[in-house]
Write a structure and sequence with these properties.
This protein is an all-alpha fold and about 400 residues long. It has a single domain (about 20-400), classed as Growth Hormone, Chain: A (Up-down Bundle). It contains 16 helices and no strands. The relative contact order is 0.16. This is Multidrug resistance protein. Keywords: Membrane, Transmembrane, Transmembrane helix, Transport. GO terms for molecular function: sodium:proton antiporter activity.
């Protein structure tokens, strides 16, 4: 086995997953997979109101999102090794408990610096939870069943960008921005109870926590060119959607003068686009890998160029949403195919592969999306299109140039 170490130990002590609870535990895992998307998207319609209430700039509020993405990404480089060495179950329970407390701290403060700190805590705890749950499917299932669940995982994950901003828009309309974090705390409590009741330890064998072993295993994964560039592809795909997350509510509410509910519907459409891309990815899972990704990227670039060119003739809420929707379908398709490949590529190092894949994805997402927003300051359909174009061209370079000789 790749990365096998003679010091591996069979799991002892922790409550093991009961076979009769396998389906229930699978359902709980699917409910926790969208947690990262839920945390990022539920308060997107509230961001302009947070800026007003806390008397801070748009950029200062956008930083709450970027700090979560960065901490979530960095944490996964460590959490993958830790859950392979100490197991998934107990670390998930502790992380859920801390996650609940962090949300309660946020609703009780008016200091943005405290919110920054809690968002970093949430990034770390969510890193433990989501990496453990991604590894769950590799631990418990094999063969075609594993491929099915890994592909389904991306689709389920995309449910958060669909539901979260939709709910967040109404929470802001009828309550306040703090209500989003009350909902997150409640969700965390529910998941903590379900995890305790139905789940259990699934790690097949504890890996020794040795720096040399971790470096060795990382080097094995990164030697694969397709895996290596796939990390960049996934980060750029999700970074494309995050550009809209960072600026979409400000464009719709501040520049177009619509309500937070409308901003929530706009974000919901982006989530539906991502889900549609994921469903298309699952439907074409047996098609040749790189050609279908290159075709999707070509369509993506065509849509973006039309988005920019048409802005001189017509630019309103409907054209903004329509063009962004089509672009997000394309990146959702690419992400679904490539992320499933990354997670299943090294099953003997499921936790480490999950941590590296997720960590690199969110770091690239955070830095690329925040950099594009910082450079272009998108406040219109055309400027948003230029931001999308940068991401699409980078993806094209990877797919057309760097991977032209690969066979996947």
């Amino acid at each position: 086995m790749i990365g096998m170490d003679p010091a591996w130990q069979q799991p002892t002590g922790a409550k093991r997953l009961d076979e009769k609870n396998k389906k229930a535990a699978t359902l709980v895992s699917f409910l926790l997979i969208p947690l990262s998307g839920l945390i990022t998207d539920i308060y997107i319609p509230s961001m302009p109101h947070m800026a007003q209430d806390l008397h801070r700039s748009e950029g200062a509020i956008q930083m709450t999102l970027s700090l979560f993405l960065i901490s979530y990404g960095l944490a996964q480089f460590v959490t993958g090794s830790l859950i392979d060495s100490f197991g998934r179950f107990r670390l998930t329970l502790v992380s859920l408990a801390i996650f609940v407390l962090s949300n309660l701290v946020i609703v009780g403060t008016q200091h943005l610096e405290v919110i920054y700190a809690m968002r970093i805590v949430q990034g770390i705890t969510t890193g433990f939870i989501v990496v453990a749950k991604r590894a769950f499917f590799v631990d418990v299932y094999e063969g075609e069943e594993r491929k099915h669940y890994l592909s389904m995982m991306s689709i389920v994950w995309s449910s958060a960008p669909v539901l979260a901003p939709f709910a967040g828009g109404y929470l802001q309309q009828y309550f306040n921005w703090q209500s989003n974090f009350y909902v997150l705390a409640g969700y965390g409590i529910l998941m903590l109870c379900l995890e305790w009741a139905f789940s259990g330890e699934t790690v097949p064998a504890y890996r020794p926590l040795k720096w040399s072993s971790i470096v060795h295993d990382y080097s094995i994964m990164l030697r694969s060119r397709t895996f290596n560039y796939g990390l960049w592809m996934c980060g750029l795909c999700y970074g494309t959607t995050m550009i809209f997350g960072l600026v979409g509510s400000f464009i719709i509410e501040h520049r177009m003068h619509y309500s937070s509910v409308v901003a929530g519907y706009g974000a919901l459409m982006m989530g539906l686009a991502w889900m549609c891309g994921g469903l298309l990815g699952k439907a074409t899972i047996k098609k040749t890998f790189l050609p279908k990704l290159r075709l999707s990227n070509a369509v993506q670039l065509a849509v973006i160029l039309a988005m920019i060119a048409s802005a001189g003739f017509v630019s309103n809420l409907y054209t903004l949403i329509a063009f962004a929707f089509l672009a997000h379908v394309c990146v959702g398709f690419i992400f679904n195919n490539y992320f499933a490949y990354l997670l299943g590529r090294f099953p003997q190092m499921a936790g480490l592969a999950s941590g590296l894949s997720g960590g690199a994805n969110f770091l690239i997402t955070a830095f690329s999306s925040y950099a594009v927003v910082g450079i272009f300051h998108p406040q219109s359909q055309q400027m948003l299109g230029y931001g999308y174009l940068v991401m699409g061209v980078l993806m094209c370079i990877i797919l057309q140039v760097l991977l032209r000789r690969e066979r996947v």
